[in-house]
Amino acid sequence: MKTRSGFVSNSSSSSFIIALPHMPEDVKELQNWLFFEDTEVFVGPYEGDWPVAVVTERVFNDLKDLKALTKKQMIDSLCDGWFDTMFKIDEFYEGADHRLNLKKWDKYKREEATEIVNQFIKSHSKMKFFIVNYEDGNGAFESALEHGDLFERVPHLVISHH
Question: If phi over 0 gives left and psi between -120 and 50 gives alpha, with beta otherwise, what is residue 139?
Fold first, then answer.
């Protein structure tokens, strides 16, 4: 039997559906949305601090070629991962062998995702919606982008892909 005694990776990734007034025209405009005016450093949740200009430039580059999401794209994106109301998965295991009823589970996920997206769109009706993805397996910087509350100043939804 083989055993692993070294480092074992448990990387994750997350998608963020963010609501913005429009596609930012430049890095400075996006920086004004993401950070308070006097903020100079984005502090990572685990290790590392990065100048907000570097963080904002990365997000700007991730956004610049995107088109605004449709409602269907937002729902599909939620269904591709885990989101806040999915803790009810245990209710969808059935039978003596306790198997997940995928048909019922997928139906539930789609209904929940639709409700979340409808509320999000309604609450931010004048906004455009975009999606960005970050993965902590790509180093400390991207880990900070994924786990560091980067979008706390803009409306957003988080989709976990653990």
Answer: left
Return d(Cα 114, Cα 107) in angstroms, integer.
11
Residue with tokens 């070629």: 65
Structure tokens at 29: 């405009």
- At 96-109, the pLDDT tens digits run 788 888 899 889 99
- Phi, psi of 152, rounded to the nearest 5 degrees: -65, -25
Angle at 111 between CA 153 and CA 160, to 5 degrees: 45
In sequence order, which residues have a C-beta less than 8 Å from that of residue 73 and are 6 or more positions away? 131
Domain boundaries, the chain: 14-160
User: What b/e string do you get for 39-62 counting C-beta neighbours within 10 Å, with b at 16 or more?
Assistant: eeebebeeeeebeeeebbebbbeb
CB 83 within 8 A of CB 110: no
How large is the average pLDDT for residues 141-162?
Answer: 93
Q: With the C-alpha atoms ordered 29, 32, 34, 39, is the resulting torsion angle positive or negative? A: positive
Give the residue from 151, 152, 153, 85 showing the smallest Cα distance to 119.
85
The pTM of this model reads 0.88
